[in-house]
Amino acid sequence: MARGTFGERLKRERELREVTLEEITSATRIGPRFLEALENEDWEKLPGGVFNRGFVRSIARYLGLDEEAFLAEYDLAHGTQATPAPDRPDNPIPSAPKWIPVAVVLGVLAVLAGLCFGGWYAWKYYQARKAQRASTTVQVPETSFPVASASSAETTGGVAVVAPPLKLDASASATTHLTVKSDGALVFDTDLHQGEHHQFLCLRECEVYASDSGAVLLELNGQAVPPLGVPGSSGTIKLSARDLRQADSGDSKPGSH
């Protein structure tokens, strides 16, 4: 739309209806200088933006014109006077290389993978150590052996003699349930299968129970121990350092129940 066409039409439509600028100002609250600027297309005298479009819409409504069509004519006329957008600078600030975020993500993934592998390896090592400890055949009570005490030492000629610890060997010729107590503490209570061999340490006394007396072979510090009872029946026996001395003196019958 050529310059002057919009303003001329606005003025012509107002004059055809015999409406003065003062009447429009009174009805729309638009100052006379803004009305004159629209009719003369002096855009620099207008506030610009949405204010100009609001003025055009209010005037069109007051004069009974099509608001949208009139706004379209205003946009077309005012658009020819629009200031072109400034050119972008020749040397804009360069953006960060695209490979940096990718490298960060890959680094995080590598750290997570290392943590997962380390945790898996530590767990496998723990399981292997646990299995190794569970597979041992030597049962050692928690009680430590003192150098000398009233219960583990005897006096000979005024000299305290420390009694040696008791080493009990148990072997099975057939499957039987075996229970072993070391100084009153339970250290073994499960089935002993044919061919299995276990060793136990006691400070003062070893107590052994077997569901089948004839299926268990016992040795106390390398000396054979008589059967716990009649083969095929259960039996219990208590062994101490006195049984070693009895065996040395020819009496090999330990205390049994």
Order of helices and strands: HHHHHHEEEEEEEEEEEH
Gap from first CA to last CA? 125 Å
Helix content percent band: 25-40%
Number of helices: 7
Q: Structural class, judged by helices and strands?
A: alpha+beta
Strand order of the largest sheet: 1-7-4-9-10
The major β-sheet equals:
5 strands, mixed
Number of E-type strands:
11
Question: Any low-confidence stretches, pLDDT <50, length ≥5?
Answer: 81-85, 137-152
Beta-strand share of residues: 15-25%
Shape: rod-shaped
- The rounded Rg comes to 55 Å
pLDDT averaged residue by residue: 79
Q: What's a concise summary of this model?
A:
The chain is of the alpha+beta class and 257 residues long.
Give an account of the 3D structure.
The chain has 257 residues and is α+β, with helices and mostly antiparallel strands. Among the domains are: 5-79, lambda repressor-like DNA-binding domains (434 Repressor (Amino-terminal Domain), Orthogonal Bundle); 153-249, no CATH class. It is built from 7 helices and 11 strands. A 5-stranded mixed β-sheet has the order 1-7-4-9-10. Helix 4 packs across helix 5 (67-79). The longest helix is centred in the middle third of the chain and has 36 residues, at 99-134. The protein starts with a helix and ends in an 8-residue tail after the last helix. Mean pLDDT is 79; it is low at 81-85 and 137-152.
